[in-house]
């Protein structure tokens, strides 16, 4: 017996004063669902492949793929009411396979599933088979910077650079809430917001401050004025896994470690010894992230002056430099540690490099056709996930270097 069709929710979410009554329209569905004719004459369990316009019929035509692999074209006027609501959201896409730049990628806590976010929505995939499990349409108004499962895997968070946060229930394909965590009128920084490990706080740069936001309420939990510099449009921020430290730097400034409880500077990392020159856009940090236990912080240089693409690993307690990673393909735009902290994946240029953290030795290189935007390592450390501006997300074997799956299609 066919399973009942998944319900489609149209959610108008408002939260906190920062929302200012801005509506969010969201819709989601599992990969295979029951599509019904408006007259009730037929029903078919199928996957939505694409939407196109038939000039002769003067109507949209929806292409569905049944579970046996056969496809069927259905005029949209024959679809049921709930089916039409889906088509209304995606009729401008033309092809339901992931298209456009892949902004962010992440593994589920058990490593069984993969999330990817492209220009128009977020997709859930089976990490073993590469099959698409479902689609979430309804994304932040800005570029997606963070995708995350909550630690219990019961919710998915999609975060935009402007502070929009969507919370989805992946089991029901339902948007639970949408919150805007920002201050109206503040400048837009070219930096990724950072989620706390428990997914309850969001760290952002607003104006001349760093702000920790409560995601559920959309209100400020704490702020750190004076650490964002003046007139800078790209800063690096990272939040320690225990929530005790923040690392902040910019393309023109060395990295500073802040104590979250006191709001004061704990120590500065001496990037000057690595060639940083005040007033010159040659050093500082373009990216920063903590290791899983919060004892070390990884930073990358802001530019590749004379193609000197370097990144560093620092000891949090002392500010001592532990290792230098010489990136062969460009400066680091994204990075991820393995769960045990022994491996590090960096996205630099059009490649992902897998490193041995203890020796700063490169182990594997995984290549895309355009810039790498996001990386992650599976919980067991056996696979590497990457998202690229070439329109695809790649799943790689950390042992053999072989590409296991490609999610999406080349632009």
Q: Would you mind describing this structure in some detail?
A:
It contains 2 helices and 33 strands. The protein folds into 2 domains: 16-90, SLA1 homology domain 1 (SH3 type barrels), CATH 2.30.30.700; 104-408, YVTN repeat-like/Quinoprotein amine dehydrogenase (Methylamine Dehydrogenase, Chain H). The strands form 8 sheets. Strands 1-9-8-7-6 form a 5-stranded antiparallel sheet, with helices on one face. The protein has a 4-stranded antiparallel sheet with strand order 2-3-4-5. It has helices spanning 16-19, 81-90, and strands spanning 27-30, 32-36, 43-54, 59-66, 71-75, 104-107, 113-117, 121-126, 132-137, 144-149, 156-160, 164-169, 174-180, 194-195, 201-206, 209-214, 219-225, 235-239, 245-250, 253-259, 265-268, 287-290, 296-300, 310-315, 321-326, 332-337, 343-348, 351-356, 361-367, 372-377, 383-388, 392-397, 403-408. The protein is mainly beta and 411 residues long.
């Amino acid at each position: 017996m066919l399973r009942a069709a998944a319900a489609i929710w149209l959610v108008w979410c408002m939260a906190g004063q920062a929302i200012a009554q801005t509506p969010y329209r969201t819709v989601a569905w599992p990969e295979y669902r029951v599509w019904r004719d408006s007259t009730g004459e037929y029903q078919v369990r199928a996957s939505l492949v694409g939407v196109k316009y038939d000039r002769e019929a003067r109507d949209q035509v929806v292409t569905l793929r049944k579970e046996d692999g056969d496809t069927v074209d259905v005029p949209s006027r024959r679809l049921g009411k709930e089916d039409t609501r889906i088509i209304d959201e995606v009729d401008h896409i033309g092809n339901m396979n992931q298209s456009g730049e892949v902004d962010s990628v992440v593994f589920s806590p058990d490593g069984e599933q993969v999330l990817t976010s492209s220009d128009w929505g977020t997709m859930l995939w089976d990490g073993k088979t590469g099959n698409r499990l479902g689609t979430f349409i309804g994304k932040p108004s800005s570029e997606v910077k963070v995708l995350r499962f909550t630690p219990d895997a019961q919710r998915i968070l999609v975060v935009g650079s402007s502070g929009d946060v969507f919370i989805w229930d992946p089991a029901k394909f339902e948007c639970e809430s949408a919150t805007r965590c920002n201050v109206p009128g503040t400048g837009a920084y070219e930096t990724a917001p950072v989620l706390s490990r428990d997914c309850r706080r969001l760290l952002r740069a607003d104006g001349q401050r760093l702000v920790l936001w409560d995601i559920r309420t959309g209100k400020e939990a704490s702020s750190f004025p004076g650490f964002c510099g003046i007139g800078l449009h790209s800063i690096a921020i990272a939040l320690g896994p225990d929530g005790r430290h923040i690392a902040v730097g910019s393309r023109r400034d060395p990295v500073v470690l802040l104590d979250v409880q006191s709001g004061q500077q704990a120590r500065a990392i001496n990037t000057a010894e690595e060639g940083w020159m005040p007033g010159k856009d040659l050093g500082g940090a373009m990216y920063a992230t903590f290791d899983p236990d919060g004892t070390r912080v990884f930073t990358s240089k802001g530019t590749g002056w004379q193609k000197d693409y370097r990144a560093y690993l620092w000891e949090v307690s002392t500010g001592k430099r532990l290792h230098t990673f010489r990136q062969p393909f460009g400066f680091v735009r994204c990075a991820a540690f393995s769960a045990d902290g022994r491996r590090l994946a960096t996205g630099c240029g059009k490649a992902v490099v897998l490193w041995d953290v203890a020796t700063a030795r490169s182990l594997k290189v995984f290549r895309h056709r355009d810039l790498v935007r996001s990386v992650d390592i599976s919980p067991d450390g056996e696979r590497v996930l990457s998202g690229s501006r070439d329109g695809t997300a790649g799943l790689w074997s950390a042992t053999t270097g072989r590409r296991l799956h490609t999610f999406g299609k080349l632009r």
